[in-house]
Amino acid sequence: MTHAGARMLIDGELLEAAEGREREIVNPASGALLASVPDAGPADVELAVTAAARAFPAWRDATPRERSERINALADAIAEHAEELGALELANVGKPLSVVREEMPVTVDNLRFFAGAARSLHGPTAGEYLPGRTTSSRLGCSTSSVATARRSATRSSSTPPCGSSR
Amino acid sequence: MRLVSLTGSLGTGKAIARSAASTVKRVHLELGGNAPLLVFDDADPAAVAAGVRQAAFFNSGQDCTAGTRLLVHEDLYEPLLAELLPLVGSLQTGDPADGEHIEMGPLASQAHQRRVLGYLERAAAGGASMLCGGGAPDRAGAFVEPTIVANVEQTDEIVQSEVFGPVLTVQRFADENAAVALANGVDYALAASVWTRDLGRALRLSKQLEFGTVWANDHLPFMSEMPHGGFKQSGYGKDLSTYALEDYSQVKHVMLSLD
């Protein structure tokens, strides 16, 4: 079983390595060729990091519910393809069936845990510790603080939300 | 990019931390382990042997929390090995594609097989004895036999290194302090386990063992709700659990004047 035409998914496109190099993946139990895959280099990493940086503001500004739903959708996709992914893992690195059958549900569960946690991410301290001032610590990259929410229509806040791209 | 997270080797982790320093990026490192199993003389040798078989040989030992160093009270040393050796000999090894009965497959690649066999050859040349296994079986593929190595010193390469294969070293200890000294006496510090019926001892040792996870009468299980990450050269930062959320987020202080 050789998987032909394997490509890297970067910025929504299936790509070969920028320098055109390929790496042969061999089943370690049988020695059979499993696939020939792109062998990424610095240019490919640059492309992926640039795409991620471009995508980040929309992700940062998504509500916890939206981010949670996306992560759960990824978990759903892995659960749906668990058998196929497990078979690839078995052939790729020689894991026994008992191991891959244990790992796939753990992978799905880990994503679901963080999908849930994204909706209850909060700073543990908030209060009026100085006269005439209210203060809070905020964990994560939400823009939904009172100060920025009021100005969200114009996005002209002088206080950049955390995790801004520069 | 604000943070680099790596699960990988110690050498790669150090290179990333050095590189990240130039732009003050956060670094989150899980750099492997070399987990001790501390077995006391009040433990049931049959139950411990079953646990050790799983801890050491699950996924051919290619798990950063795999039990790799069996530390046994001198009075239980012979009874435990008498239980353990036949259990390890019963491991069904082979090509995982052959079916569900295969418990242990090959290593992940031939390059890794050569690395693991190199550790075993150097250990044997240095005077270690192989209680079982010790080499590659007579078949094609990146296989290494389930191996138990005795007659080793704490400073030996096979004891100090993360071999990442189906290889378990065995050492004896006379008392609790000696056991803790052997357990803590490596640079890696990801996970450890204590095997005893004395829960006071289990709790006492959980404080003295410098590892990110300490199990008692168990080894390997983890879950999404609890943190996973090492001390010392096993790296820093936690994965899994709400601790990981903090590692992968930034805390901001926001203050408003009420005027």
Task: Describe this entry's structure for a reader.
- The complex is a heterodimer of chains A (166) and B (259).
- Chain A is α+β, with helices and mostly antiparallel strands and 166 residues long.
- Chain A has five helices and six strands, in the order E-E-E-E-H-H-H-H-E-E-H.
- Chain A folds into three domains: 61 residues, no CATH class; 59 residues; 45 residues, no CATH class.
- A two-stranded antiparallel sheet of chain A has the order 1-2.
- In chain A, a hairpin with a 5-residue loop joins strand 5 and strand 6.
- Chain B has eight helices and twelve strands.
- Chain B is α/β, with parallel strands linked by helices.
- Chain B is globular and about 75 Å long.
- The two termini of chain B are 38 Å apart.
- Helix content of chain B is 32%, strand content 22%.
- The interface between A and B is large, with 44 and 44 residues.
Structural class of the secondary structure composition of chain B?
alpha/beta
Strand content of chain B: 15-25%
Q: Any idea what the CATH superfamily of the largest domain in chain B is called?
A: Aldehyde Dehydrogenase, Chain A, domain 2
Question: What average pLDDT do the residues of chain B reach?
Answer: 97
- Report the major sheet of chain B: 7 strands, mixed
Look at the structure and give the mean pLDDT of chain A.
Answer: 84
Strand content of chain A: 15-25%
- Give the overall shape of chain A: elongated
Helix content of chain B: 25-40%
The run of helices and strands of chain A is EEEEHHHHEEH
CATH structural architecture of the largest domain in chain B: 3-Layer(aba) Sandwich
Structural class, judged by helices and strands of chain A?
alpha+beta
Give a nutshell description of this structure:
Chain A has 166 residues and is an alpha+beta fold. In chain A, 45% of the residues lie in helices and 16% in strands. The mean pLDDT of chain B is 97.
Structural key phrases:
A: 166 residues; alpha+beta; 3 domains; two-stranded antiparallel sheet; 5 helices; 6 strands; B: 259 residues; alpha/beta; Aldehyde Dehydrogenase, Chain A, domain 2; seven-stranded mixed β-sheet; 8 helices; 32% helix
